[in-house]
Design a protein that fits this description.
By secondary structure, the protein is mainly alpha-helical. The protein is 66% helix and 7% strand. The protein has helices spanning 5-16, 36-51, 57-64, 67-72, 78-97, 100-103, 105-127, 136-145, 155-184, 192-199, 220-235, 239-246, 249-254, 260-279, 282-285, 287-309, 318-327, 337-366; strands spanning 22-27, 32-35, 188-190, 209-213, 216-219, 369-372. Strands 2-1-6 form a three-stranded antiparallel beta sheet. It has a three-stranded antiparallel beta sheet with strand order 3-4-5. It is globular and about 60 Å long.
Length: 384
């Protein structure tokens, strides 16, 4: 698998910080520094995503002075944002020391694909921005059509809900139109014989490919790695459980990506959109994007590493499932037994993972010496 584009971007940002002042320094088994320029790039890019790309750094700083905004979004507090970066840095460095990143093909595949998806979504939001508008007339029409559903509901919340639903429909529609246009201008081949082998859990050969897009092959081996890396992470489960789900019609109906046909179609759509975004110079015209991707990569590595490292601590027993079901029997009155079991298993596993992650990160902090310079947050550009 190719190296993650994110790692390259991370190196660019990190190297550009050399010689600058650090705002946090970690000493111990995994020494590292977070530079003030790097911090600012990540902080402001992250919050522009939340509050609007047109927001200047100064305007975001003004929001951070408002207690109401801080209460709704604690990470507007630069000290808390820095603490989060330190936490991520500790785990990512541990993963590097364990050679986890270099040796895990599934992780590289997961990062590459997730990153492409993030870039595609960012690009599409920018490209369709002027067309993503909902009129009062459209909201009123949707309300009248579904008036019974909104009976006794708060009108302000109903209006916002309808608006978001209509915006999402328009976004999907515009995306589908662009993808169909890109498909028309591309040569796409699917290898039906190899896809059939994969569906039947038959062994594939090194030369086998699943799909070609403008001559670029997705090898069967890489496809299988990609498929399981995405779905194992999504469902927080193992390969065997994914195979069970993809052979369950109800599960596939809920998530078409469990089927190989659905997953391959999504791969094609994302690949075409990503190439279009790159051709349209999405990175060059959106400086925040590199920072957002860098932060996302680190978050992905942390999450994936901790799930792998702490997997045994998140195993769920039949007794735990039965106990949870009995305590919440009324909630599962009309839910099929297998669906209820899957839901309960995921809930308990996630709870165990959160506790285990908290303990693991606390241990990393205790074995490291961490210095911070929050006073740099108040310095002007001239002082820096």
């Amino acid at each position: 698998m190719k190296k993650s584009v994110l790692i390259t971007l991370f190196c660019i940002i990190t190297l550009s910080s050399c010689g600058k002042e650090w705002v946090a320094k970690i000493e111990g088994k995994s020494p590292s520094k977070i530079y003030i320029d790097e911090f600012n790039s990540l902080y402001y890019a992250q919050h522009r995503m939340s509050y609007g790309e047109e927001k200047t750094n100064e305007e975001i700083d003004k929001l951070a002075e408002n207690l109401n905004y801080i209460q709704r979004n604690p990470l507007l507090d630069k000290k808390k944002f820095l603490d989060q970066l330190i936490q991520i840095e500790l785990v990512v460095n541990k993963a590097k020391n364990d050679n986890f990143i270099e040796n895990d093909e599934e992780l590289q595949s997961y990062i590459d694909t997730y990153t492409q998806g993030a870039v595609v979504n960012f690009y599409a939001q920018k490209k369709f921005k002027d067309k993503l508008v909902v009129s009062d007339e459209e909201i009123a029409k949707e309300y009248e059509t579904n008036m019974e559903m909104f009976k006794n509901a708060d009108m302000d919340k109903v209006e916002n809900y309808i608006k978001q639903q209509l915006l999402q429909k328009k976004f999907v529609s515009l995306g589908n139109e662009l993808i169909e246009e890109l498909k028309t201008g591309s040569t796409i081949e699917k290898n039906a014989d190899v896809i059939k082998k994969i569906k039947n859990d038959e062994t594939t050969e090194d030369k086998d490919w699943v799909v070609k897009i403008d001559g670029k092959e997705l090898k069967a081996k890489d496809y299988i790695t990609l498929y399981y890396s995405q779905l194992k992470t999504l469902y927080n489960t193992d390969k065997e459980h994914i195979d069970t789900l993809r052979k369950t019609p109800e599960a596939v109906e809920k998530n078409p990506l469990l089927s190989h046909d659905g997953f391959i179609e999504q791969y094609i759509r994302q690949d075409l959109m990503y190439k279009k975004a790159v051709d349209d110079k999405v990175f060059e015209t959106n400086p925040d994007l590199k920072s957002l991707i860098t932060l996302q990569e680190k978050n992905l590595i942390m999450s994936y590493y901790l799930k792998d490292k702490l997997g045994k601590e998140t195993e769920v027993t039949e007794d735990e499932i039965t106990g949870f079901y009995q305590q919440n029997a009324d909630k599962f009155a009309n839910v099929p037994a297998d669906q209820a079991e899957n839901y309960i298993r995921q809930q308990i596993s996630q709870q165990k993972l959160q506790r285990a992650m908290s303990n693991f990160i606390t241990a990393l902090k205790e074995e490291s010496k961490i210095e911070k310079k929050p006073e740099l947050f108040t310095k002007t550009e001239e002082q820096k």
